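Cont'd.
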Amino acid sequence: MSDGTAWAQGYALQAGADLNTWFVLQTVTDVAECHRLLFLQMACEKACKAHLILGGSSPETLQTSHGYVANPLTIVIKQQILRLSASLKGMRGVMEHVRHVAEEIEILNPAIDRAGKRPDNCEYPWEDSSGAVRSPLTWSFHPSRLVTAPAGRTFLKLLRASIEQLCDFLSTPETPSPLRVKS
Amino acid sequence: MLVNREDLAEALARKHYEVESGLTHVYHIQDKLDLSQQVCVEHTRAAPIRLLEVNENTVPSGIMPLSFGPAPASGITLPSVIVEVTPAEFARIQSDDLQLPEGWAVGKLIPKFNGVE
Protein backbone atom coordinates (compact mmCIF):
# COMPACT_ATOMS: atom_id res chain seq x y z
CA MET A 1 0.00 0.00 0.00
CA SER A 2 1.15 3.55 -0.74
CA ASP A 3 2.49 5.66 2.09
CA GLY A 4 0.26 7.71 4.34
CA THR A 5 1.19 11.04 2.80
CA ALA A 6 -0.03 9.92 -0.63
CA TRP A 7 -3.31 8.77 0.90
CA ALA A 8 -3.68 11.98 2.88
CA GLN A 9 -3.07 13.98 -0.28
CA GLY A 10 -5.68 11.93 -2.11
CA TYR A 11 -8.26 12.52 0.60
CA ALA A 12 -7.42 16.22 0.88
CA LEU A 13 -7.74 16.84 -2.86
CA GLN A 14 -11.03 14.97 -3.02
CA ALA A 15 -12.30 16.92 0.00
CA GLY A 16 -11.47 20.14 -1.81
CA ALA A 17 -13.28 19.02 -4.94
CA ASP A 18 -16.31 17.88 -2.91
CA LEU A 19 -16.46 21.23 -1.13
CA ASN A 20 -16.19 23.08 -4.43
CA THR A 21 -19.12 21.05 -5.71
CA TRP A 22 -21.13 21.91 -2.60
CA PHE A 23 -20.48 25.62 -3.17
CA VAL A 24 -21.45 25.32 -6.85
CA LEU A 25 -24.66 23.48 -5.96
CA GLN A 26 -25.72 26.32 -3.65
CA THR A 27 -26.48 28.33 -6.79
CA VAL A 28 -28.48 25.59 -8.52
CA THR A 29 -32.10 25.82 -7.47
CA ASP A 30 -33.38 22.48 -8.78
CA VAL A 31 -30.90 20.35 -6.83
CA ALA A 32 -32.37 18.78 -3.70
CA GLU A 33 -31.09 19.84 -0.29
CA CYS A 34 -30.05 16.26 0.48
CA HIS A 35 -27.83 16.11 -2.60
CA ARG A 36 -26.17 19.41 -1.79
CA LEU A 37 -25.52 18.30 1.77
CA LEU A 38 -24.09 15.02 0.57
CA PHE A 39 -21.13 16.92 -0.85
CA LEU A 40 -20.66 18.94 2.34
CA GLN A 41 -20.71 15.74 4.40
CA MET A 42 -18.25 14.02 2.06
CA ALA A 43 -15.92 17.02 2.04
CA CYS A 44 -15.86 17.11 5.85
CA GLU A 45 -15.32 13.35 6.20
CA LYS A 46 -12.46 13.26 3.69
CA ALA A 47 -10.75 16.31 5.18
CA CYS A 48 -10.90 14.69 8.61
CA LYS A 49 -9.56 11.42 7.23
CA ALA A 50 -6.62 13.23 5.62
CA HIS A 51 -5.66 14.71 9.00
CA LEU A 52 -6.18 11.34 10.69
CA ILE A 53 -3.88 9.60 8.20
CA LEU A 54 -1.22 12.24 8.75
CA GLY A 55 -1.66 11.59 12.46
CA GLY A 56 -0.87 7.91 11.97
CA SER A 57 -4.25 6.25 11.37
CA SER A 58 -4.29 3.39 8.89
CA PRO A 59 -5.67 4.32 5.45
CA GLU A 60 -7.00 0.76 5.13
CA THR A 61 -9.10 1.14 8.27
CA LEU A 62 -10.39 4.55 7.26
CA GLN A 63 -11.38 3.41 3.76
CA THR A 64 -14.10 1.18 5.13
CA SER A 65 -15.15 3.20 8.17
CA HIS A 66 -17.49 6.09 8.77
CA GLY A 67 -18.22 8.48 11.58
CA TYR A 68 -14.96 10.37 11.57
CA VAL A 69 -16.46 13.85 11.60
CA ALA A 70 -17.97 14.96 14.92
CA ASN A 71 -14.78 14.86 16.95
CA PRO A 72 -12.08 15.53 14.31
CA LEU A 73 -13.87 18.32 12.45
CA THR A 74 -14.05 20.51 15.54
CA ILE A 75 -10.31 20.11 16.07
CA VAL A 76 -9.62 20.90 12.40
CA ILE A 77 -11.68 24.09 12.65
CA LYS A 78 -10.13 25.03 16.00
CA GLN A 79 -6.65 24.79 14.47
CA GLN A 80 -7.78 26.91 11.55
CA ILE A 81 -9.12 29.57 13.90
CA LEU A 82 -5.71 29.79 15.53
CA ARG A 83 -4.08 29.94 12.12
CA LEU A 84 -6.24 32.77 10.78
CA SER A 85 -7.38 34.82 13.74
CA ALA A 86 -5.21 37.49 15.25
CA SER A 87 -7.76 37.80 18.05
CA LEU A 88 -9.60 34.87 19.59
CA LYS A 89 -12.33 37.13 20.97
CA GLY A 90 -15.74 35.73 20.10
CA MET A 91 -14.34 32.43 18.92
CA ARG A 92 -15.78 30.44 21.83
CA GLY A 93 -19.25 31.02 20.43
CA VAL A 94 -18.08 29.96 16.99
CA MET A 95 -16.55 26.79 18.43
CA GLU A 96 -19.75 25.89 20.28
CA HIS A 97 -21.65 26.27 17.01
CA VAL A 98 -19.01 24.29 15.11
CA ARG A 99 -19.33 21.41 17.55
CA HIS A 100 -23.07 21.30 16.93
CA VAL A 101 -22.63 21.54 13.15
CA ALA A 102 -20.01 18.79 13.15
CA GLU A 103 -22.28 16.40 15.05
CA GLU A 104 -25.13 17.08 12.64
CA ILE A 105 -22.92 16.67 9.57
CA GLU A 106 -21.72 13.29 10.84
CA ILE A 107 -25.34 12.15 11.14
CA LEU A 108 -25.94 12.89 7.44
CA ASN A 109 -23.99 9.70 6.71
CA PRO A 110 -26.44 6.77 6.51
CA ALA A 111 -23.99 4.58 8.42
CA ILE A 112 -24.40 6.81 11.49
CA ASP A 113 -27.75 6.74 13.27
CA ARG A 114 -26.85 7.22 16.98
CA ALA A 115 -28.27 3.80 17.99
CA GLY A 116 -31.40 4.31 15.93
CA LYS A 117 -32.19 7.71 17.41
CA ARG A 118 -31.14 9.65 14.30
CA PRO A 119 -31.94 7.65 11.16
CA ASP A 120 -32.22 10.82 9.07
CA ASN A 121 -29.51 10.90 6.43
CA CYS A 122 -29.01 12.43 3.01
CA GLU A 123 -28.88 9.23 0.91
CA TYR A 124 -31.48 6.59 1.80
CA PRO A 125 -35.12 6.55 2.98
CA TRP A 126 -35.69 5.57 6.61
CA GLU A 127 -38.58 4.65 8.89
CA ASP A 128 -39.35 7.09 11.68
CA SER A 129 -40.56 6.22 15.19
CA SER A 130 -44.20 6.24 14.05
CA GLY A 131 -43.48 3.73 11.30
CA ALA A 132 -43.73 6.24 8.46
CA VAL A 133 -41.14 6.05 5.70
CA ARG A 134 -39.28 9.32 5.24
CA SER A 135 -37.28 10.35 2.19
CA PRO A 136 -34.19 12.56 2.20
CA LEU A 137 -35.76 14.40 -0.74
CA THR A 138 -38.52 15.87 1.40
CA TRP A 139 -36.64 16.13 4.71
CA SER A 140 -35.47 19.41 6.21
CA PHE A 141 -31.95 18.93 7.50
CA HIS A 142 -30.41 20.70 10.50
CA PRO A 143 -27.06 21.45 8.83
CA SER A 144 -28.69 23.58 6.12
CA ARG A 145 -29.99 25.91 8.80
CA LEU A 146 -26.86 25.69 10.92
CA VAL A 147 -24.46 26.70 8.17
CA THR A 148 -26.47 29.78 7.24
CA ALA A 149 -26.39 31.19 10.79
CA PRO A 150 -23.65 33.80 11.33
CA ALA A 151 -21.38 31.33 13.12
CA GLY A 152 -22.20 28.80 10.41
CA ARG A 153 -20.88 31.08 7.74
CA THR A 154 -17.71 31.48 9.77
CA PHE A 155 -17.55 27.70 9.95
CA LEU A 156 -17.77 27.43 6.15
CA LYS A 157 -15.00 29.98 5.67
CA LEU A 158 -12.81 28.14 8.14
CA LEU A 159 -13.60 24.76 6.57
CA ARG A 160 -12.71 26.02 3.12
CA ALA A 161 -9.51 27.64 4.39
CA SER A 162 -8.51 24.51 6.28
CA ILE A 163 -8.95 22.26 3.25
CA GLU A 164 -7.16 24.79 1.06
CA GLN A 165 -4.29 24.97 3.50
CA LEU A 166 -4.11 21.18 3.75
CA CYS A 167 -4.14 20.82 -0.04
CA ASP A 168 -1.37 23.39 -0.35
CA PHE A 169 0.64 21.65 2.38
CA LEU A 170 0.36 18.30 0.60
CA SER A 171 0.17 19.33 -3.05
CA THR A 172 2.81 19.04 -5.70
CA PRO A 173 3.02 21.06 -8.92
CA GLU A 174 1.28 18.16 -10.67
CA THR A 175 -1.63 18.09 -8.23
CA PRO A 176 -2.55 21.68 -7.31
CA SER A 177 -5.27 22.44 -4.82
CA PRO A 178 -8.67 22.28 -6.54
CA LEU A 179 -9.87 25.16 -4.40
CA ARG A 180 -7.03 27.37 -5.66
CA VAL A 181 -7.69 26.30 -9.24
CA LYS A 182 -11.38 27.17 -9.10
CA SER A 183 -11.18 30.42 -7.16
CA MET B 1 8.91 33.95 18.10
CA LEU B 2 8.75 30.87 20.35
CA VAL B 3 11.42 28.28 19.62
CA ASN B 4 11.37 26.04 22.66
CA ARG B 5 9.19 22.95 22.18
CA GLU B 6 7.65 23.19 25.63
CA ASP B 7 6.89 26.89 25.18
CA LEU B 8 5.29 26.16 21.82
CA ALA B 9 3.18 23.36 23.28
CA GLU B 10 2.05 25.60 26.11
CA ALA B 11 1.23 28.45 23.73
CA LEU B 12 -0.87 26.14 21.56
CA ALA B 13 -2.64 24.67 24.58
CA ARG B 14 -3.47 28.10 25.97
CA LYS B 15 -4.96 29.20 22.65
CA HIS B 16 -7.09 26.05 22.69
CA TYR B 17 -8.23 26.75 26.26
CA GLU B 18 -9.19 30.23 25.13
CA VAL B 19 -11.53 29.10 22.34
CA GLU B 20 -12.99 25.94 23.93
CA SER B 21 -15.21 26.33 26.98
CA GLY B 22 -15.41 22.55 27.46
CA LEU B 23 -11.67 22.00 27.53
CA THR B 24 -10.80 20.97 31.08
CA HIS B 25 -7.23 19.66 30.81
CA VAL B 26 -4.45 19.59 28.21
CA TYR B 27 -1.49 17.26 28.59
CA HIS B 28 1.71 16.88 26.66
CA ILE B 29 1.98 13.54 24.90
CA GLN B 30 5.52 12.31 25.28
CA ASP B 31 7.46 9.37 24.01
CA LYS B 32 7.69 6.66 26.64
CA LEU B 33 11.46 6.88 26.13
CA ASP B 34 11.37 10.58 27.06
CA LEU B 35 9.58 9.86 30.31
CA SER B 36 11.90 7.09 31.39
CA GLN B 37 15.24 8.40 30.21
CA GLN B 38 14.80 12.12 29.51
CA VAL B 39 16.74 11.79 26.28
CA CYS B 40 16.26 12.38 22.57
CA VAL B 41 15.18 16.01 22.94
CA GLU B 42 17.63 17.05 20.26
CA HIS B 43 16.57 14.21 18.00
CA THR B 44 12.90 15.10 18.27
CA ARG B 45 13.24 18.87 17.99
CA ALA B 46 11.50 18.92 14.59
CA ALA B 47 8.94 16.29 15.57
CA PRO B 48 5.35 17.44 16.04
CA ILE B 49 4.09 18.89 19.29
CA ARG B 50 1.58 16.34 20.61
CA LEU B 51 -1.26 17.32 22.90
CA LEU B 52 -3.90 15.23 24.65
CA GLU B 53 -6.98 17.38 25.26
CA VAL B 54 -9.77 16.44 27.66
CA ASN B 55 -13.00 18.08 26.53
CA GLU B 56 -16.30 17.65 28.31
CA ASN B 57 -18.18 18.89 25.23
CA THR B 58 -16.86 16.32 22.78
CA VAL B 59 -18.29 12.95 21.81
CA PRO B 60 -16.55 9.68 22.71
CA SER B 61 -14.66 8.46 19.66
CA GLY B 62 -11.57 6.72 20.99
CA ILE B 63 -8.03 7.75 20.19
CA MET B 64 -7.91 9.66 16.90
CA PRO B 65 -4.66 11.60 16.49
CA LEU B 66 -5.05 14.48 14.03
CA SER B 67 -1.99 15.98 12.41
CA PHE B 68 -1.53 19.64 11.41
CA GLY B 69 1.24 21.57 9.71
CA PRO B 70 2.99 24.48 11.40
CA ALA B 71 1.23 27.85 11.69
CA PRO B 72 4.16 30.30 11.75
CA ALA B 73 1.93 33.39 11.53
CA SER B 74 0.37 32.30 14.82
CA GLY B 75 3.74 31.61 16.36
CA ILE B 76 3.37 27.83 16.12
CA THR B 77 6.46 26.94 14.16
CA LEU B 78 6.28 23.17 14.51
CA PRO B 79 3.72 20.66 13.26
CA SER B 80 1.24 19.45 15.84
CA VAL B 81 -0.78 16.35 16.63
CA ILE B 82 -3.97 16.70 18.68
CA VAL B 83 -5.85 13.89 20.41
CA GLU B 84 -9.15 14.93 21.97
CA VAL B 85 -11.03 12.70 24.41
CA THR B 86 -13.94 12.94 26.81
CA PRO B 87 -13.30 12.95 30.59
CA ALA B 88 -14.56 9.33 30.70
CA GLU B 89 -12.15 8.32 27.95
CA PHE B 90 -9.31 10.04 29.80
CA ALA B 91 -10.15 8.00 32.88
CA ARG B 92 -9.91 4.88 30.70
CA ILE B 93 -6.49 6.02 29.43
CA GLN B 94 -5.31 6.47 33.01
CA SER B 95 -6.53 3.00 33.94
CA ASP B 96 -4.90 1.54 30.81
CA ASP B 97 -8.27 0.43 29.45
CA LEU B 98 -7.81 2.77 26.46
CA GLN B 99 -4.37 3.00 24.91
CA LEU B 100 -2.57 5.81 23.18
CA PRO B 101 -0.61 4.77 20.07
CA GLU B 102 2.44 2.58 20.68
CA GLY B 103 5.25 4.46 22.37
CA TRP B 104 3.14 7.45 23.45
CA ALA B 105 2.53 8.37 27.06
CA VAL B 106 0.57 11.04 28.87
CA GLY B 107 3.03 13.72 29.92
CA LYS B 108 2.73 16.71 32.16
CA LEU B 109 -0.37 18.83 32.49
CA ILE B 110 -0.44 22.23 30.85
CA PRO B 111 -2.62 24.17 33.28
CA LYS B 112 -5.47 26.33 32.15
CA PHE B 113 -3.99 29.40 33.76
CA ASN B 114 -0.34 30.13 34.49
CA GLY B 115 0.53 28.26 37.64
CA VAL B 116 -3.07 27.36 38.42
CA GLU B 117 -4.96 24.27 37.31
